[in-house]
Amino acid sequence: MLGKFFQKPNQENSGRVPPGQHLAKGFPVLTYGAAPQVSIEEWEFRVWGLAKPAVFSWSDFMNLPQHEFTADFHCVTRWSKLDVKWTGIKVRDFMNLIEVDPKAAHVMEHCYGGYTTNITMADFVREENFFAVKLFDEALPVEHGGPMRLVVPHIYAWKSAKWINGLEFLEQEELGFWERNGYHTRGEPWAEERYSNS
Ligand SMILES: Nc1nc2c(c(=O)[nH]1)N[C@H]1C(S)=C(S)[C@@H](COP(=O)(O)O)O[C@H]1N2
Ligand SMILES: [Mo]
Asked: Which of 9, 21, 123, 188 lies deepest, with the highest CB count within 10 Å?
């Protein structure tokens, strides 16, 4: 009884769907609250905390190389979408622009609209993570986080912050919005790290 919104994984992709997940039809939108509208002219991206404070414009990001990424997307509310095609800027390329204190072990992702989510430095700087500016070859739609969102494919999608506009580098872990409200601090889909026990 999966209803019309979900499909059972077929044989071919069943090894790619983590336990307890179903394939979504289409690409659902999951936003807490209203989607902020930000033009690229006013758009700004800040880094602070255990990093030299800096502000970046849209064109600063556009000067970095862009790549195509195809990644599976897993929401903790039990839907997954395979082979989402994005275009974006590697987190590692952006990290080369900033000076981070070696003591920084955690990152708080900040967004237009006030959403936050925390991630460890190790999970954040993985080679496959990127700031997306296009979805299936079109400018990233506002409801999916446009003009820019983070995508962290190996972790449940609540860590893939939409409308991201800042990184706060921290020595100790702090909790973001959903993590304070019971979600797991890490959120690895294959281990079903959905909710915290505390
Ligand atoms: N700023 C912001 N980012 C967010 C969210 C949000 O509510 N606000 N929701 C998260 C959750 S729970 C999921 S599953 C994904 C959904 O991304 P989508 O709406 O593009 O499918 O965005 C994540 N990033
Ligand atoms: Mo989600």
From this structure: 21
Averaged pLDDT, groups of 10, the chain, 198 residues long: 64 85 96 97 98 98 98 98 98 98 98 98 98 98 98 98 98 98 97 88
Any atom of ligand 1 within 6 Å of the Cβ of 184: no
Nearest residue by C-alpha to atom 9 in ligand 1:
31
> Which neighbouring-strand residues pair with 47?
54, 167
By alpha-carbon position, which residue is closest to atom 10 of ligand 1? 158
Q: Is residue 154 part of a domain?
A: yes
Q: Is the pTM of this model over 0.85?
A: yes
Closest atom of ligand 1 relative to the 76 alpha carbon: 14
Ligand nearest to the CA of residue 136, numbered in listed order: 1
Asked whether 123 and 105 are in contact (CB, 8 A), the reply is: no
- Residue 25 domain-assigned (yes or no): no
User: How far is 31 from 160, CA to CA, in rounded Å?
Assistant: 11
User: What's the gap in Å between 157 CA and the centre of ligand 2?
Assistant: 5
DSSP letters along 75-117, please? -TTSEEEEEEEEEEEEHHHHHTTS-B-TT--EEEEEETTS-EE
